[in-house]
Amino acid sequence: MLIDIRDLYKIYNEGKESEVRALDGVSLQIDKGEFVAIVGQSGSGKSTLMNVLGCLDIPTYGEYYLDGTDVTSLSDKELARIRNREIGFIFQGYNLIQELDALENVTLPLIYRGVSVFDREDMAMEALARVGMEDRAHHRPSEMSGGQQQRVAIARAIATRPPIIMADEPTGALDSKTGRHVLEILRELYREGTTILLITHDDSIAATARRVVRLSDGKVIADHPQEVDWE
Amino acid sequence: MNLWQAFKMAFKSISMKKTRSFLTMLGIIIGVASVVIMVSVVQGQNKKNMEYFEKMGDNKINVSAYSYYDTNNETSEKLYDYCLSMSDLVLGITPDAEIDQKMTIQYGAKTLSVNDWDSMGGGGSVDWEKMMHVKLGSDQYGVCNNYQLAGGREMSYLDVEKTNAVCVLGAGAKEALFDYTDPVGESITINGQPFLVVGWYESMAVDYWPELDNIIVLPYTFNRTLNNNNTINSYVVKAKSASATVEAMTKLDAYLAGLFPKNAEGWSDRGDYYVQSDNSWAQNLQSQNLMQSLVLGAIAGISLLVGGIGIMNIMLVTVTERTREIGIRKAIGAERKSIITQFLIEAAVICSIGGVIGIGIGCVGTLIAGKLLLDEAMMLPGTGITVGAFLFSVVLGIIFGMYPAIKASGLQPVVALRAD
What we know:
The complex is a heterodimer. By secondary structure, chain A is of the alpha/beta class. Helix content of chain A is about 35%, strand content about 25%. Chain A has helices at about 45-55, 75-85, 100-115, 115-130, 145-160, 175-190, 205, and strands spanning about 5-10, 20-30, 35-40, 60-65, 70, 85-90, 165-170, 195-200, 210-215, 220-225. In chain A, helix 3 crosses helix 4, helix 3 (about 100-115) runs parallel beside helix 5 (about 145-160) and helix 4 packs across helix 5 (about 145-160). Chain A is globular, with a radius of gyration of 18 Å. Chains A and B meet through helix 2 and helix 3 of A and helix 1, helix 10, helix 11 and helix 13 of B.
């Protein structure tokens, strides 16, 4: 079991009138190598779930084991290590650093990982090549289209070769053609054995996954595998 | 992430955001430069004041006594005798009088008019810097007034006693009459009467007081013939040391109080007197300088504080607006320590560059202000204030550049990512 959460709660303003239960007792198990889509309307808690699963946020209550490790007991430093080595993030808004060019953005997680200066440029270029962006290595985000920026963000996510990729509405800001391209990259990573978590509100995007987990009001209302035709 | 990486990242960030970096530096540049210039100018002024008093000499007592009934300088004679009796305390004593009659001084073809107000074209166009002063003194005139002989000798006791027609020239008078030739042994005439030049003094070289050099000193016994036998009532007494100055002043005070006893109302109907020393002037001046330094210190402190608040603001704003960037860095695996190190180095580099530029501008500004305000060719700021202003700004910049970074790096990444 790669990801194992039990009775997870994320509650804002607990006990007050304005209390919001973003996650209301979620339990979920995901195995290595799965391609899971987490779907739901906006406000259903799917982004909160990804943030907690990605160690970007801490749950209010509940258990979270990542590859057997109790994540809720880890220190800030150990969480940083997990974010760096175990998980690659792809955000809807790309979240590239504007002052750095594509190559520097992709190199950043490798720097934090402590990869030597001789290896990391090669690794970063390799990641850029995988998303077809090697010829834009020295362009800054402002000089690239949305699709290109998202591909650089994917390169950054896979540069450290993490076993898990978490993508939060990765196609949300893209047109359908570039969106399909991004999904194609995710499928390819899946075929290579990477565990993929795809968060989306769009059922047609979710149709690309092998398993769909549906959230509503912070609760899992459906969880089923699905057949997909990837031609 | 090692330190070298952090340095590279910091430099990258500084060079990518030039406007932001420049604005951050500007506060520090202005703060450091203005404090350095302001403090330097006041310190320079204080130094110049002290210089004048050093040239005038320490342990110098000015004594004046005005008797209401004196017709024949009796008080002066008594005072002079009394001063001579304190030979264990004093190095010298000289009358301090100037001839106020109209005179013509000649040497060869050169003529100097003294106190000729009409031909000088009235008060408005008098060139004070070129005016000559004919002084009446004793053989100790030079010692008492801190003049150093440049050549020849002082007038002697016998010259004074016998009213010998000799004179000693100040550097200004020597230059006006003799240019660069040696005046010793030459004769000048004052109102037609020949005077033998026996010596001349080095220049006092005090910028604001050229009249210190524009003097011709005659034996005071010429008071009778050249000065209408005016009353001489001022003396300069040169004491042997600071403590001797105090003792001599006390004695003179007591002696003169005896000459002019006070009545029941607390004043004397016989005459008036004062005893004063440059030491007390210098002390006054020193306390005045101290006062100025304190006021200045307060002003400098306030400007540093204002500058500091400016630095604080811009650092808080620029680092706070990068909360999202901090969130991204955390999301891809930056430890808190790496982020804080990066921002520390950024703040330190920016503030140091600003500080160095500020010192540079401060030095140039001090040079210019020194030239314009104090007529100093090469005035530079003191090390203390420069280092102080620099350190204060840099430390402040680092603290307030660090504080938001420390705060933001402690947030959950998702919270930092949401900031914008």
